[in-house]
């Protein structure tokens, strides 16, 4: 019976083996994508044992591509990109040009044509969103300025890949016509015109009709019908885009963007996520099925060349660009290592190239090999960032040369905003590091008690705004002694560190206490387990988000039950005593 049902057996084999390998890689603190690719190798035609149907797996993978792109569009927010556009846009453009150029050189060295080199180069230039997000989260860099830059950089790369997917069919068709440059230009113009018309239709009338449809379906209160509507929109619009000469990937991306702007976007994301994840797993499994392990032995130069571009060429380009734009060494390392891998978009582009018969099987297999190795190494490289930074700091001349533009930019920004130094301010009572919602609240309360804090923040616009209001503010990395001195840390009585990530807080506190051992340090902490480490480096008062959330929820619940304020205060104290370390110094 099972042999007569290749679709069922392919799904069962793909998901079952992917579950096993995904669990193993997750336990090893590696990306589950690596496990899914390995599962594909196991059930593929090049290894003994279980064999899934490759043709069916590739069709299932097409659905995975649609839902992956729909998810990208659903979570795409232009404001996230605009916040870091000064680094992300030139950085992504520069790195993509470098990687594509290196890919073309590698293809030329192997005797391939320029079209194959372009597909290979673009495939090697774009990193995996899943791998980057996991690396940033595991290294506590997701909410830091370097993390924001890396995410914005990747968004620009994704947009470039979407454009490449749009133009690839038109360029292919024009080149096959063989009528010269005029035909190529005409086909490109026609493709851009059709795709632009489709995009305008989607983002214009579609932006009104689709949310209207989703809203009416949501009012039926049928979860199943709403989920069906979301999936039908994603897949039908993706397929519909092919009728205007576009790719299904672009259609799904635009559909996700439109749905993402609706009032029911969060529910749409929640309903689409399980289906997207399931088919995305099958997509990665199908890619792994195309990989022949013997290929690494048979074509070592191709694999080594692809890996060199991903692990050496791309990171070096990113480091040079980030440092040239005046960012710190830490930012350069986070961006470079975060993007030193390839993933889903690389496979989507390679699959499109294979479908159009302009990319060879060897190229796709090389991309899979490069992905397997780079995804495996990426978490290890992320963990090595502090060690690399310490190694550089032990070489003052080299570190100073790398930091020169960053420090110059910090000084220019501080001078531009006319920051008042410690001498001008007299006695500095408090320095607040970070001016997000927590930092703003702390600074407001200090001002209400007639204490004017000096704010240190990495956002130039924030510093400019504060200076315009007559507030004391310093632009720069608070872990740098020069920045702390500019804020008057040596004369300050209090340091309040409101940064959300532990990795960002620790160097600030250490540097500040080195400059002022008498400093009273107050810091936020996301988890109670961070307490001992913060106490060890000299924090006197710690506010735990974990325990405060428990206190807040308990207080609300007690009020609902009719408890008075005295009872609530007693319970709040009990919660804090049970969750927080007992040896935290009081104010």
Instruction: Indicate the mean pLDDT.
Output: 79
Spatial shape: globular
Q: Domains counted in the coordinates: how many?
A: 2
**CATH C-level of the largest domain:** Mainly Alpha
Number of helices: 28
Spatial order of strands in the largest sheet: 3-2-1-4-5-6
N- to C-terminal distance: 73 Å
At CATH level 3, the topology of the largest domain is: Na+/H+ antiporter like fold
Cα-based radius of gyration, to the nearest Å: 27 Å
Structural class by SSE content: mainly alpha
- Outline the biggest β-sheet: 6 strands, parallel
- Give me the count of strands: 6
Strand content: under 5%
Helix content: over 70%
From the coordinates shown, what is the CATH architecture of the largest domain? Up-down Bundle
Q: Which consecutive residue ranges, at least 5 long each, have pLDDT under 50?
A: 416-425, 583-587
List keywords for this structure.
28 helices; Rossmann fold; globular; mainly alpha; Na+/H+ antiporter like fold; six-stranded parallel sheet; 587 residues; 4% strand
